[in-house]
Specification:
Oligomer: single chain
Strand order of the largest sheet: 3-5-7-8-9-10
Number of strands: 12
Distance between the termini: 66 Å
Mean pLDDT: 89
Order of helices and strands: EEHEEEEEHEEEEE
Shape: globular
Number of helices: 2
Structural class: alpha+beta
Length: 207
């Protein structure tokens, strides 16, 4: 009598989209100029150390903080400065991150087809920390901004649904950022200009 074998079914492999050719880096890595040449690249793609970094969907906290800061910073900015959001900054041949907000010198280029700014255009870079970008926002990006000579950096953390703004200034001697304060309910500063923002205005943090 033939031996009975259990009937075992193998689930077919799910269809997997092939990696597009543009996503495969050259041996030496991508360059900052490649971001403008790669076809089909997703919006808000960054270049860090020659590697493409793709952005995850934005949380409501992230969106509300950016809306509040952009509105208030733009409202109070002096004539020699301007505020923009989600524009890449070319820091070097293989570095082109995209800060969430930047304060620019008013003489920075303003043509409508521009896709990036140079480091010398930027007075302040602001990053709102997300779960997927914690390491970059807390460590690698501030290191890059400092090395490029950007004078001011803010890192914004989510503390129980409220923004906690960590304010840094560049030490011109050491070339690294020094923490000058942490602000949770009210952001009141004299640099890079007179700023007074009620951080609780982002709304009710309860779900």
């Amino acid at each position: 009598m033939p031996e009975r074998k259990d009937d075992m079914s193998i689930a077919p492999l799910a269809d997997v989209e092939p990696i597009p050719d543009w996503a495969i880096p050259p041996i030496e890595g991508f360059t900052a100029d490649d971001l403008d040449r790669l076809p089909g690249i997703p919006p808000h793609t960054e270049l860090i150390d020659g590697t493409l970094v793709f952005v995850s969907p934005q949380t409501r906290f992230h969106a509300l903080v950016l809306f509040l800061l952009h509105r208030e910073l733009d409202r109070t900015a002096p004539a020699h400065l301007r505020v923009e959001r989600e524009m890449t900054v070319k820091l070097g041949r293989r570095q082109r991150p995209e800060p969430d907000l930047v304060i620019l010198h008013a003489h920075a280029p303003s043509d409508m087809m521009r896709t990036f700014y140079e480091a010398e255009d930027v007075l302040l870079a602001i990053e709102v920390v997300s779960e997927e970008s914690e390491e970059r926002d807390r460590n690698r990006k501030p290191q890059m901004y400092a090395e490029a000579g950007i004078p001011h950096f803010w890192r914004i953390e989510n503390v129980e649904g409220r923004p906690s703004v960590h304010v840094y200034e560049l030490n011109p001697v050491t070339g690294v950022y020094a923490l000058t304060g942490v602000h949770q309910n009210r952001l009141k500063l004299g640099l890079p200009y007179d700023i007074d923002i009620d951080l609780t205005e982002i709304g009710d943090p309860r779900p």
